[in-house]
Design goal:
Number of domains: 3
Distance between the termini: 20 Å
Shape: elongated
Largest sheet: 6 strands, parallel
CATH class of the largest domain: Alpha Beta
Helix content: 40-55%
Strand order of the largest sheet: 7-6-5-8-9-10
Structural class: alpha/beta
Radius of gyration: 28 Å
């Protein structure tokens, strides 16, 4: 089974394409004859598919066709903005994602919860088998290990906290407001604020409105509370305790200083007609919650994914220890994969031995029909024991060798020596490999 990662992120694709890719409802449409397992990860700045496929090219082609249908972008054009990782490179990428090394805010821990949710959703619709189950379990462990053993948490806590830092800068009179063009060169020099947003804005408390009560909205509320904000109004499309209906949003925006929007809507929830005064808007949704052109209105400070990508600092120098953890974990997973690859060959060898024993027992029954049933059973038992003892050490040894450098050579050697043709194993065919 081949591992593939197909995806797009803030680093290689425009937000407009990420919005289209985010319309993919779940992992089920991805699976089929050419894709045995699939996990779909969607965040505000990336959409990725983790897949186990019998054949690389057929699996990749199938995924490309599904994405082209969802986005309405021709496959050839879509391919220019997608990245593909295969085999051990796919494992390395997934572990880096889990550790926060691929995040817009390097080292942020929120990605772990998003990865766990994606894994759970795929499990619920039965698109996870042995291969992706192991990959997801190990990726989540790698992410936890990265945060527990390193200083990675010195980076901003999440994309939400980084956005609030930028909002604080926009609200503080002594700080220069972002330019209308939001050029990367001008804003890259702005350092994230650490002061509480409470009190910014001329000595009075800042009025905050959160649109959306999902994971991102809940995180925004927790982060604001942690910073000392007590007056928070939360708006949600469906009725929930402690929230206001979405119909109240236009009136609330007339009173708010900052609006944080993070809904799952496929169309804008904040339009130009709703903006009647100077205001700071944080758009953390994918697709975007804010109508195109709102950021160009007079007095509007728009902090969105593109804005954050331009101003967030690079923490790569602080994350070398995490890189070392990821590298060691990738090596360990590669050992597990190689063990799984040799399993069909070992199974084929044992099956061949069983066939030989079975044929010899039939010949014996024809040549010595006078043997009793008990005698035949004793002979059969003895033959099976001899064969199992002869095969035990070689099969144990080939598993060990297959797990090391150049392991695929030993697997192929066994196939050639015994003229074995193991079938393309499914997840259920591959037994657990002892650690």
């Amino acid at each position: 089974m081949n591992l593939i990662v197909v995806g797009a992120s803030h680093r290689n694709a425009p937000v407009t394409l990420l919005e289209k890719l985010s319309l993919l409802a779940g992992p089920q449409p991805l699976t089929g004859v050419h894709v045995a397992e699939a996990v779909l990860l969607k965040t505000c700045n990336r959409v990725e598919i983790y897949a186990a496929v019998p054949a690389f090219h057929a699996g990749l082609s199938h995924l490309g066709e599904v994405l082209a249908q969802v986005t309405g972008v021709p496959a050839e054009e879509l391919a220019k903005s997608l990245y593909v990782h295969h085999g051990i490179d796919a494992v390395r990428h997934v572990f880096r994602v889990a550790a926060g090394l691929e995040s817009m805010v390097a080292g942020e821990a929120q990605i772990l919860g998003q990865l766990r949710d994606a894994y759970q959703q795929a499990s619920e619709v039965d698109t996870v088998g042995k291969t992706l189950h192991e990959l997801m379990q190990q990726a989540l462990r790698v992410g936890k290990r990265a945060h527990a053993e390193t200083g990675i948490d010195k980076a901003p806590r999440s994309l939400v906290s980084a956005a609030l830092d930028q909002a604080t800068l926009a609200l503080t009179p002594a700080s220069p407001a972002p330019s209308a063009s939001r050029s990367a060169s001008a804003e890259a020099s702005v350092r994230p604020a650490v002061a509480s947003p409470v009190g910014a804005g001329g000595g009075r408390s800042v009025r905050w409105v959160i649109v959306g009560a999902g994971a991102m909205g809940a995180l925004a509320r927790v982060e604001l509370t942690r910073r000392g904000v007590t007056e928070i109004i939360q708006v949600n499309r469906s009725e929930r305790e402690g929230t206001r209906p979405l119909e109240d949003l236009p009136a609330l925006m007339d009173e708010a200083d900052v609006v944080i929007s993070a809904t799952a809507s496929i169309s804008p929830v904040i339009t130009k007609a709703m903006v009647t005064k100077p205001i700071t808007i944080i758009d953390l949704a994918m697709p975007r919650d804010v109508e195109v052109g709102v950021g160009d209105l007079a007095g509007v400070r728009l902090i969105d994914i593109e804005h954050l990508a331009a101003v967030l600092p690079d923490h790569s120098n602080e994350l070398e220890e995490v890189e070392r953890i990821v590298a060691s974990e990738v090596d360990a997973f590669e050992t597990w994969l190689r063990g799984g690859e040799v399993a069909p060959t070992v199974a084929a060898l044992r099956s061949r031995a069983d066939d030989v024993v079975g044929n010899e027992l039939k010949r014996l029954a024809q040549r010595l029909p006078e043997l009793s049933a008990q005698q035949r059973d004793e002979v059969a038992h003895a033959l099976h024991r001899v064969v199992q003892r002869l095969l035990h050490q070689p099969t144990v040894r080939v598993r060990q060798l297959a797990a090391g450098p150049g392991g695929e050579t030993y697997t192929q050697l066994v196939r050639d020596l015994f003229d074995l043709h193991p079938h393309a194993a499914t997840v259920a065919d591959i037994p657990e490999v002892a650690e």
